[in-house]
């Protein structure tokens, strides 16, 4: 499946849902905020939201530091 993630085109084979994508990108548990095709998703929607070829996904996650 071809997705546009944070402005970069990516071929990702084993991903079906937004939750799968977050796991594939190793962002699980990092407080990610996801926008799918210009619509912000609630975290409760990640597991049920199915991705389609060509979807545009923006992911913002929090990074600690000081």
From TrEMBL:
Task: Read off the InterPro entries from this record.
Answer: Beta-grasp_dom_sf, Mopterin_synth/thiamin_S_b, Thi_S, ThiS/MoaD-like
Looking at the record's lineage, which domain of life comes first? Bacteria
Q: Which PANTHER family match?
A: SULFUR CARRIER PROTEIN THIS
From the Swiss-Prot or TrEMBL record, give the protein name.
Answer: Sulfur carrier protein
Name the species this protein comes from: Fictibacillus solisalsi
């Amino acid at each position: 499946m071809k997705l546009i993630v944070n402005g970069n085109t990516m071929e990702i084979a084993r991903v079906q849902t937004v939750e799968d994508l977050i796991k594939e990108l190793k962002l699980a548990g990092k407080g990610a905020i996801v926008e799918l095709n210009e619509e912000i998703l609630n975290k409760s929607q990640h597991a049920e939201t199915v991705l389609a070829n060509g979807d545009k996904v923006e992911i913002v996650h929090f990074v600690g530091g000081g």
